TrEMBL record:
Assembly with partners or alone: Homodimer.
The name this protein goes by in its record: Iron-sulfur cluster carrier protein
Binding site for ATP: G26, K27, G28, G29, V30, G31, K32, S33
Keyword field: ATP-binding, Hydrolase, Iron, Iron-sulfur, Metal-binding, Nucleotide-binding
Function: Binds and transfers iron-sulfur (Fe-S) clusters to target apoproteins. Can hydrolyze ATP.
The keyword Phosphoprotein appears for this protein: no
Length: 260
């Protein structure tokens, strides 16, 4: 049990999940879901069995990034995670709705309950890594996930813009408060590379990555540019065709639970 006396949820009989990594951000729109997908993709390319639990219940975007739709199968006991073309298992509320534009108008406890069920009532099978895409901020769902799931660590996604604010530090402080190791952070939309001269254009201002590394002792996992090719593939549901090699040592970092 944690310091509030809350036990971790056990794995069901269908599952053997070795490592669980959550992806969080201080605020929305920094590319958290895209980074979750890229983390999963790069682990899968290394030969690991990977799943993505879409815990962003009211703003689920994982199925769309992978072009996944249609109801998952179930056997009366559990719902079977769907599989992308590349073999990544996915569960998201969007797969369970009548239509993908149906809003989820639920109170916090119901939403948190749904996230827990994605762990207890979903057949994921054997996974080396389960990546949990959290909703932005430090609200109900991140709290539920940090309390109820056996997390190996969290990855914090930032943009140069939001590093200037206090939001990243809030996310860091929450993870520390909950005793969840921070594997590192990803600075997304860091710069735009001019296709003509190759110069880095700092669209959202100077990078604060170095400052975050020194002031908070966090490991920089990746600095991603604004990449129109990535945006296009995301929109088309073909993120699995993004061929940049990223997060080279993340598997080792997560296995060792190295915090900085
Ligand atoms: P969040 O989960 O933080 O709300 P998303 O991952 O849904 O953000 O990203 C928001 C939008 O920005 C998406 O349309 C995505 O395709 C785009 N995007 C994210 N990261 C990048 C990037 N590095 N380059 C280009 N587009 C990006």
């Amino acid at each position: 049990p944690d310091k509030c006396g809350i036990d971790k949820l056990p794995q069901n009989d269908y599952n053997e999940i070795k490592h669980v990594i959550a992806v969080m951000s201080g605020k929305g729109g920094v590319g958290k879901s895209s980074v979750s997908a890229l983390v999963a993709l790069n682990l899968a390319r290394k030969g690991y069995r990977v799943g993505i639990l879409d815990a962003d219940i009211t703003g689920p975007s994982i199925p769309k990034l992978f072009g996944l739709s249609g109801r998952p199968e179930h056997d009366g006991n559990v719902v079977f995670a769907k599989q992308t073309d590349g073999g990544i298992k996915v569960m998201s509320l969007n797969l369970l709705l009548e239509s993908e534009d149906q809003p989820v108008i639920w109170r916090g406890p119901v939403i948190a309950g749904a996230v827990k069920q994605f762990w207890t009532d979903v057949a994921w099978g054997k996974l080396d890594f389960l990546v949990v895409d959290l909703p932005p901020g430090t609200g109900d769902v991140p709290l539920t996930v940090m309390q109820s799931l056996p997390l190996d660590g969290v990855i914090i996604v930032t943009s140069p813009q939001d590093l200037a604010n206090m939001v990243v530090k809030k996310a860091v402080n929450m993870a520390n408060h909950m005793n969840v190791p921070i594997l590192g952070f990803v600075e997304n939309m860091s710069y735009l590379r001019c296709p003509d001269c190759g110069k880095e254009i700092k669209v959202f201002g100077e990078s604060h990555a170095a400052a975050l590394t020194t002031s908070m002792g966090l490991r920089l996992l990746e600095r991603l540019p604004i990449d129109p090719a990535l945006a296009e593939l995301c929109d088309a549901g073909r993120i699995e065709n993004y061929d940049k090699e990223l997060f080279a040592n993340l598997d080792e970092i997560a296995k060792k639970r190295v915090t900085n």
